[in-house]
Specification:
Number of helices: 20
Oligomer: single chain
Shape: elongated
Radius of gyration: 55 Å
Order of helices and strands: HHEHHEHHHHHHEEHHHHHHHHHH
Distance between the termini: 155 Å
């Protein structure tokens, strides 16, 4: 062949007219025929192989032996949610997005909602779609392997530099491939209803994987938005719900479920879901037990505090009133605590229904609370007697203080009589101290009267009037005003006469003079009828003020802003 045929021919025209071309073409046809038969057989065998895992349709006269084992094994599994961390860059991008158009903002909002919706999911591993892709990928393998067989010319005639082309080129649109893909897809689609239905059944319990522990307990024992613990019936319903869910999960299917084509392995998922359901049930029972023990401890604390407060010996009237109020409210408090213990008992009965194991010491502490109402009743008897004794003691003390106070008013009257002797302006300096002292004593006496009235109200006694104190206060007021004003006038007139006028506020001087004149006139009218001699002092004081007021024009002139330092030097 080497002598008659040149495989190293480089001239394409000579090759096309040579016998070698015809020989190679014949081999090309032979190779193509065998390749076609092989591809057709491979495709047919694969489709027939998959068909053996499906049930024949007898209505279409289909009949073949079905394999007793499935084609592929898939596992029911849990896809855990992804925890996404938002860094500063994302926050900055979010701020920018707030300024974006409404369309972009809506897309971002939708994406955020999708992120927030991430939860633990029940899925198949591998998924049914992945299994279908695997079955159909065999056609891709047939296409790739068939197209990898090139024509003979490119290999046998290297110097012609002919382009390598597949001997039997095929693709997805090739009828054999398209028909096979259609048959395989129909076989898979016709046998996924069972696995999908089983997945949907398990998905009903997907929520168990996404329970928020803290939220669950808070909702039951603190209530929505802090509204308080929910009724026992709702707690029991939640426990029964998770107990029922555990039973349903464990009896939902066998550990291995065979369908045509698929075998589903569910044991691991059943265990995981069942364990979670029992975990939530146990957690609620634990929280119920904690509620019982904490409630009993709180009731014990309140009873102890009640006993101490009832038997407390009050040392003053304020403590006595607080003690009497507390004793009066004690029966209602005992009734409330008794109701709380009844509710705790109902919770303990529920724990027994679910065979919950709790400490014997805790239940003993609960039953010990039953004796407290009797103890409190005995304490109330002693506390009431003690409060009555203290009430009598403090009442006697109040009467003694009121008697001493009445004597004190008589002393104030005596002091006032001395102040009534004010008939001359020269007496101001001698009486000013006694006047201020009497004013202070009268104000203090009024405060004492208010305290007496409060204490009398405390003991349920009528308020005692003190008309003598009111009379002294009313009669003393004009004397106090006249003496204090006389003292003030004397001091200020001396200052305005002796000190430099430039340092004085002219407006204040004019205002004081006007106010004094008006006050003197009013005091004269008040005192003239009962105390005419003292009223004359008001007139004398007014005369002094008017005498000084004649200097006001001169004071105004000297304190004018027009008078400069040079003018004072010249004067």
């Amino acid at each position: 062949m080497r002598k008659n045929h040149n495989f190293y021919e480089g001239n394409n025209e000579l090759y096309e007219s040579s016998p070698l071309k015809r020989i190679i073409s014949r081999f090309e046809y032979i190779l193509n025929t065998y390749l076609r038969e092989f591809v057709d057989l491979s495709i047919t065998d694969w489709v027939e192989f998959i068909k053996l895992f499906t049930n024949p349709n007898l209505n279409n006269d289909e009949l073949w032996k079905v394999n007793s084992y499935p084609f592929v094994i898939i596992h029911l599994s849990i896809k855990k949610k992804e925890k996404k961390k938002k860094d500063k860059k994302k926050k900055d991008e979010k701020k920018k997005d707030e300024k974006a158009p409404e369309g972009a903002a809506a897309e971002d909002e939708k994406a955020e909602e999708s992120d927030e919706d991430d939860k633990n999911r029940v899925i198949y591993k591998p998924s049914i779609e992945e299994c279908q892709e695997y079955v159909l990928s065999s056609m891709e393998m047939v296409i790739d392997s068939t197209n990898s067989v090139n024509g003979l010319e490119s290999d046998l005639m290297p110097f012609l530099q002919k382009k390598s082309n597949p001997n039997f080129p095929i693709d997805q649109s090739f009828p054999w491939i398209a028909t096979a893909n259609s048959s395989l897809t129909n076989m898979i689609d016709g046998n996924v209803e069972g696995p999908k239905a089983l997945l949907d059944e398990y998905k009903k319990y997907e929520y168990i994987l996404n329970v928020d522990k803290k939220q669950l307990i808070d909702d039951l024992f603190k209530g929505a938005e802090g509204g308080g613990k929910v009724p026992l019936e709702e707690i029991k319903a939640q426990i029964e719900h998770y107990e029922k869910a555990h039973y349903e999960i464990m009896t939902l299917s066998e550990d291995e479920v065979d369908f045509r084509i698929f075998r589903v392995m569910s044991k691991k998922l059943k265990t995981q879901l069942g364990d979670k359901a029992m975990e939530w049930k146990t957690m609620i029972l634990d929280a119920t037990y904690s509620f019982c023990t904490e409630s009993v401890a709180n009731v014990f604390k309140i009873y102890n505090e009640m006993q101490e407060k009832i038997l407390h010996d009050p040392i003053n009237e304020k403590e006595l009133i607080a003690s009497k109020d507390f004793i009066a409210q004690a029966p209602a408090t005992v009734e409330r605590l008794t109701d709380e213990l009844k509710e705790v008992y109902r919770h303990y009965l529920m724990l027994d229904e679910f065979s919950y194991m709790y400490k014997e010491l805790d239940i003993e502490s609960f039953w010990y609370m039953k004796v407290w109402p009797l103890k409190i009743q005995a304490c109330l008897t002693d506390g009431k007697n003690m409060a009555q004794d203290k009430n009598d003691l403090f009442s006697a003390k109040l009467e003694a203080e009121k008697e001493a106070f009445t004597k004190q008013i008589t002393l104030y009257q005596s002091n006032f009589e001395k102040i009534k002797e004010f008939t001359k302006l020269d007496q101001v300096q001698d009486l000013i101290t006694a006047t201020f002292e009497l004013r202070k004593n009268i104000d203090t006496a009024h405060n004492t009267v208010v305290q007496f009235h409060d204490r009398e109200t405390t003991f349920g006694l009528p308020e005692t009037p003190y008309p003598d104190l009111d009379d002294i206060d009313k009669s003393f007021k004009p004397f106090f005003d006249l003496i204090t004003m006389s003292h003030e006038v004397k001091q200020l007139l001396r200052e305005w006469t002796e000190e430099r006028l430039m340092t004085r506020d002219t407006e204040a001087i004019f205002s004081s003079i006007s106010q004094w004149q008006s006050s003197c006139f009013q005091l004269y009218k008040k005192l003239n009828e009962d105390y005419p001699e003292t009223a004359e002092v008001a007139q004398d004081l007014r005369a002094q003020i008017e005498t000084f007021s004649k200097n006001l024009p001169l004071i105004k002139a000297f304190t004018s802003e027009a008078i400069l330092e040079e003018d004072w030097k010249e004067i």
